[in-house]
Specification:
The protein is of the alpha+beta class and 788 residues long. The chain is 50% helix and 16% strand. Helix 1 packs across helix 11, helix 9 packs antiparallel against helix 14 and helix 23 runs antiparallel to helix 24. The two termini are 40 Å apart.
């Protein structure tokens, strides 16, 4: 019997090729989109779950008023381990960049972690060579990944070899790590012992409690994990320890952040780069469901519209004794058969499109067809899609009465028409919402790109000050000033792109002793404000003429608001940073020094007395010449280090790479959803035109024009589309505003976006319907009325 059902289904597919193509191809596109999104969502949800103790690992984060930071003070790790039995182990991490050298191979590396010796006890990063228990115990040991071992030592055995850091310190390779999985929020190439950093870092040597720059992870007892009451108790106890030390107040609290929530639920200050967004996971999951739903609606619409063609078949089967459940089984079987055909096409589409999809998402996703769980999931999607899309047509077709069928009086009931109309409305509600969302996402991303940051980001070239450059800073400044291409320079500790510094313990007149807010800080030179073209609202910039400026400060507007001062009277007021008493000499207009998703924070600028970056504002059409001039200066003063440079505007663009990728993906999937809707609408309009062939012939004989026929066939669809617009607009309004609320600085949703989206939907639908309508209107009525 099953064989017979599938044979009939196959014959129907061959007999009605256009209908079959629309059904199979529409479902295939819907499935392919859903599979791609499913792969992406699964990857996003899998972050950090590969660690053996993933459910017991937590990160300590800081929560202080409106500021949440991923970093903590150096001393908290040892304190919580000593005083809290529930904390089984801890590890501190610090990310850095260095020049590394092995033989004649020398590279500047940015993905370097300093870690406590407990690093491999907490995290499951497999060690291919070496002893995990001792690999990080010696201060001059270094771990590197397989890829880095090949990069520096080729096919030689790397274990036991030496690597030189910054032309000075020599490390011995004590272990080779497997390459870090892409679904780890910690991405690194090298691990150095924290014990080595402790030789020179004041935070570690002096056990300071007012500087936040270390990532602290803890391993909790498995009996504590999962209990909200236990975690609440741990929060109270860890903050009791924290508040017992100077530099913290009651409004500053530490929190335990689960490791598996860091990637998707971490929008924190001073965090590691590369995090995802739970909101995007939710949005794309909904989009996948929407696209698959639209494809299923196509199937339902076309199947019920073709009901009259299957009526006699149903009648004859009932006459020879078929029960309704058997007919339902037959039609569901046909639907599942079509769904599995669509799955085959979808898998070929996914295989073809996956490299492009990976380029768009910046991932390395794979579809393993031999993976049992994944294959079962795909078959489950096909089965569910077939059952859902075929359920209503099966119930509808199997319900025909024998007497009506054999008399030729089968009529499509009003309930069926209403249901089909409802499906068409649903399709275009989804399409219009996606069109509005696409426009809003595009406008928000353009707003981010073009927003005034408070400084001029164009033509800013920077070079990191490595090796001997800071030791020869006087000679460096002389050469920069003498060359007309490099005269517009500044030396700054950090760049105003994603500033990670934060400190407490700031003192000023009238400060509430109960409050201890966190200030961002950056060390700059006397040229910084001029080179970046920032606006000074009051006072002056730092100057060589004032030796006391080494203890003076410039603050931004946000800092003044927090301190309760006014721009006009702030200059000359005392300010103490790290127990260094000084004076406010200037107030700079607020400027962005972090991604635009975050609000501008209070900032203190101090005079630079360390290294950092040389920033050059290049002259128009002189960028290449400036790079060559800068390279010559750096190679002369710092020959042991390779010359490297970058552009500030490119760094800023990279900050929003995630949003840009999501915007591109959203545009693609929205376009495909609209295409699937139009595919179904085309099939439906073609079938309706075919059903009314004789009516159109009679109307033409009686004098109806082509316009009259087109109007007749498109009126119903236009009404449905107008209803869809009425439903879609409020849904789109709520959805887009909800998404925009995640940005500190955002656009206002303009009514023009809704108008354009609605008109576009009408135009696309009109073009889709008009083709078959005009074709029917131009047909010779003699052919359609020949048998009458």
């Amino acid at each position: 019997m099953l064989y017979n059902y599938f044979k009939i289904a196959f014959r129907n597919l061959l007999r009605h090729k256009a209908f079959s193509f629309i059904n199979v191809f529409g479902l295939a596109i819907g499935m392919a989109c859903s599979i791609l999104i499913m792969l992406w969502v699964q990857d996003e949800l899998s972050y950090d779950r590969f660690h053996a103790n993933a459910d017991q690992l937590y990160r300590l984060t800081l929560d202080a008023n409106d500021i949440q930071a991923a970093v903590t003070v150096a001393g908290i790790a040892a304190e919580v381990k000593a005083q809290m039995p529930e904390v089984k182990n801890t590890v501190r991490l610090f990310n850095a960049g260095h020049l590394l050298e092995a033989g004649d191979r020398k590279f500047e590396e940015k993905r370097i972690l300093y870690a406590d010796s407990t690093f491999l006890k907490l995290f499951t990063f497999p060690l291919i060579q070496g002893d995990a228990k001792t690999a990080l115990r010696q201060p001059d040991g270094i771990l590197l990944t397989e890829a880095m071992a090949r990069k520096y030592f080729g096919h030689e055995v790397a274990l036991g070899k030496t690597i030189r850091k910054d032309n000075r310190d020599v490390f011995t390779v004590t272990g080779i790590l497997a390459n870090v999985p892409s679904n780890s929020h910690l991405q690194f190439d090298f691990v150095l012992p924290m014990a080595f950093l402790a030789k020179t870092d004041a935070d570690l040597t002096d056990d300071q409690w007012n500087n936040y720059k270390f990532f602290t992870y803890v391993l909790l007892d498995k009996h504590v994990v999962g209990s909200a009451e236990s975690l609440a108790g741990l929060h109270k106890r860890v903050n009791k320890i924290f508040h017992a030390h100077p530099g913290s107040t009651a409004e500053m609290n530490l929190k335990f952040q689960p490791l598996d929530r860091i990637h998707l639920h971490s929008n924190l200050m001073a965090d590691l780069p590369g995090h995802g967004s739970s909101q995007y996971v939710q949005i794309f999951s909904v989009v996948a469901i929407f696209i698959l739903t639209v494809a299923c609606i196509n199937f339902m619409n076309l199947a019920t519209a073709r009901s009259a063609r299957r009526a006699k078949e149903v009648g004859l089967r009932k006459v020879v004794g078929a029960y309704r459940y058997q007919l339902v089984g037959q039609f569901l079987g046909e639907s599942v058969f079509i769904s599995f055909l669509a799955l085959l096409v979808a898998m070929m589409l996914v295989w073809t499109l996956l490299p492009t999809f990976n380029d768009l998402t910046g991932k390395a996703l794979t579809l393993d067809f031999l993976n049992g769980k994944r294959l079962a999931g795909l078959l489950g999607i096909a089965l569910l899609t077939g059952l859902i899309s075929g359920s209503y047509p099966a119930l509808f077709l199997s319900g025909f009465r024998i007497s009506h069928v054999l008399k030729g009086s089968v009529k499509v009931g009003s309930g069926n028409v209403m249901f089909r109309n409802g499906l068409v409305i649903t399709q275009f509600v989804v399409s219009i919402v996606l069109m509005v969302a696409t426009a809003v996402v595009y406008n928000q991303l353009q707003f981010i790109k073009t927003r005034n940051l408070g400084f001029d980001k164009e033509n800013l070239l920077y070079v990191p000050m490595t090796g001997d450059l800071w030791g020869k800073v006087a000679a460096l400044k002389t050469q920069l000033q003498q060359n007309p291409l490099t005269q517009a320079y500044a030396i700054t500790e950090g760049l105003p792109t994603n500033l990670a510094s934060g400190t407490s313990g700031i003192q000023w007149e009238g400060k509430d002793p109960k409050k201890e807010p966190i200030f961002a800080h950056i060390a700059i030179d006397e040229n910084f404000l001029k080179v970046f073209k920032m606006k000074l609202l009051s006072g002056r910039s730092f100057s060589r003429e004032f030796k006391a400026d080494s203890a003076n400060y410039i603050v931004n507007e946000k800092a003044l608001q927090l301190m309760g001062m006014k721009v006009a009277t702030a200059v000359g007021k005392p300010l103490t940073l790290w127990e260094k008493k000084g004076t406010i000499v200037g107030v700079v207009q607020d400027f962005h020094f972090k991604p635009i998703q975050q609000t501008i924070e209070p900032l203190i600028l101090r005079l630079n007395s360390g290294g950092g970056f040389i920033v050059i504002r290049t002259q128009p059409k002189q960028t290449e010449a400036t790079i060559h001039a800068l390279e010559k200066i750096c190679q002369q003063l710092n020959p042991a280090y390779p010359f490297s440079y970058n552009f500030l505007d490119q760094d800023l663009a990279n900050l929003y790479q995630g949003e840009q990728r999501m915007g591109s993906l959203f545009n693609v999937f929205a376009g495909l959803a609209i295409f699937i809707s139009c595919l179904g609408l085309y099939g439906l309009s073609a079938f309706m035109a075919e059903q009314r062939t004789k009516e159109i012939g009679v109307r033409k004989v009686l004098g109806a024009s082509v316009f009259d026929i087109v109007y007749l066939l498109s009126t119903n669809f236009t009404r449905l589309l107008l209803l869809a617009i009425a439903v879609a607009v409020p849904i789109a309004w709520v959805a887009t505003n909800s998404w925009l609320d995640g940005f500190a600085y955002r656009i206002d949703v303009n009514w023009i976006i809704f108008l354009v989206a609605c008109l576009t939907a009408l135009l696309i639908a009109g073009i889709t319907i008009s083709y078959e309508s005009i074709k029917a209107a131009l047909a010779n009525p003699v052919k359609s009325l020949r048998s009458e």
